[in-house]
Input
Amino acid sequence: MSGTQPRPGPSRERPLVAVIGGGFAGAALAYQLARRAPDVFRIVVVEPRPQLGGGLAYSTGDPAHRTNVPASRMTFLQSDPCHFDRWLKADAALRDDPDATLPDGRAFPQRSVFGRYASETIEPFLLSGEIEHLCDRATAVRETGEGYRVELAGGGAVEADFVALAAGHPAPAAPPPLAHFAGDPRLIQDPLTGEALDRLRPNARLLIVGCGLTMADIVASLDARGHCGPIRAISRRGLLPRPHAEAPGEFGAFAKAPSRTALALLGHVRKTIRLAEAEGRPWQHVIDACRAQGRAIWAALPSSERRRFVRRLRPFWDVHRFRIAPQTNAVLQRRLRDGGLRVDAARIVEAKAKDAAIEVTIRLRGGRLEMAEFDAVALATGPAHRSLIDTDPLFSDLYRNGLITLDEVGLAFAVDGRSHALGRDGHAQPTLWIAGPLARGAFGELMGLPEVGRHAEEVAGDIIRTYARELADARVA
Output
C-alpha cells in the first residue's frame, strides 16, 4: 500500500494498534495512546522481554551500569519532569545503594531501577487491559486489504489496523576485520548482557572497539568483578565521554537564525562556548542548549550538510552530548591512572585467531602499525541501526518488501515529518510509523530520554488524529 492509495476504514469496532518493540520508546508510545484516547484502541505491544519500558538500556541487571544523567532529569512522562524523582523517594529505591547519591545531592541510580520504574508506570494500563503485552518477537509485517498482519516468532500473528515500529538499539556491527569471528565467543558483540563478561578470566587481556559510554560500562562492570587484566580501548579519534556540569543550565540561541552548514554550526557553538566561559558558565550549558533546540537546528541543515555532520562532527557531538555518570568516570580515571586501561586513537587493520587468543593488527593515528594479542574483543561502537535490514528478520522483510527504506543521512530509516515510514518508492506509509531512535535521520537529536519521550507523544498524537480522520471520511462516504 503506497502513500497515495486509499485505505478502507478500520476493520474492528476498536482498531488495533500494534507497537513493535516494548523498550522505552514503545512503552511510552503505548502509554500515551492509552492515556490520551481511553477505550478507543486495542493496543498490543510486541516485546520478547518480560517487562515493558526497560529495553536494552534499562533491563541490565549489572549494578555497575548507572544512568548517565541525574535522576532529577529523567522521567517516563515528559509533562511531569519530577515523576521519576518522586517515585525514587516514595519507593526508597536508593536505600540499599549508597554510591548512587553524590555529596551535592545528585543521584545516578542503577539503570535497572529506571527500568523498574518505567514498568510500574505502565502497569496500571496492563492490569486494566487497555494495553496488552504480547511476549513474542515480530518477524514480519504483511500488508492486507484492511491493514497489516504482524507475524510472530512463536508462530501466531496479529491483525492490525495501525503499526508503529519502536524497536530499540541493536547490537553493534563488527568492523570488517572482525566479521569472520561472528559467533566466536572471543568476540563479544553484545557486552551489556553481562554473560559474556562473566566468562572472562580475571586476568584476561581485553580489546574494546569504541571509546564511548558502552566502553565505560564494560570497564566499570569488569572492575566490579575484580578484573585485573589489561584493557585497551580504541576508536578512530580516541575520544572519551565528558563529565557533567555540577549544575544544569542552558546557554545560547541556535534556533532563531540556525546555521545552514555544518561548519557554520561548529563555529557558532565554539563562539557561544567562549561567551559562556566569559560569564563563568561551563561548556555543558551550551551543548544542552543545542540539544534543546536540536530539531530546529537539524531542520535548517540541507541533506548534504546533515551527512557532513554525521561523517565529521558526530563523534565530537556524541562525547560532549552523552556524558558519563560520575561514579563510572571515577572507575575509568582510576584505571587510566594505574595503567589498567589504555585508550588510543586507532583502528583495526587485521585480526586472526592465534591459539586461544585473537591477534590484532592496529593502525594508530599517524600511521604506525602495532600488533597485539587479546583473549577477547568487545564491541562498543554503538547501535548499528542501519544494519537491521541485514541482521533482523523483521526489518529485512520490511525493507525487502519496500515498506521502509534507509534515510539519506546515514543514521537509520527514512520518515516524513509526521514519522510515517517512507517506502522504497519514496511515498509515506500513512498507517505505518517509526518511533524513537530509528527515525533520527529526519529529526536529528533522537537518542536521549527526553527526545524519545516527546517523539513517542508526537507519534501517539498522529495515530489518534489519523484514526479520527478515517472515521470522518467513513461517515462522509
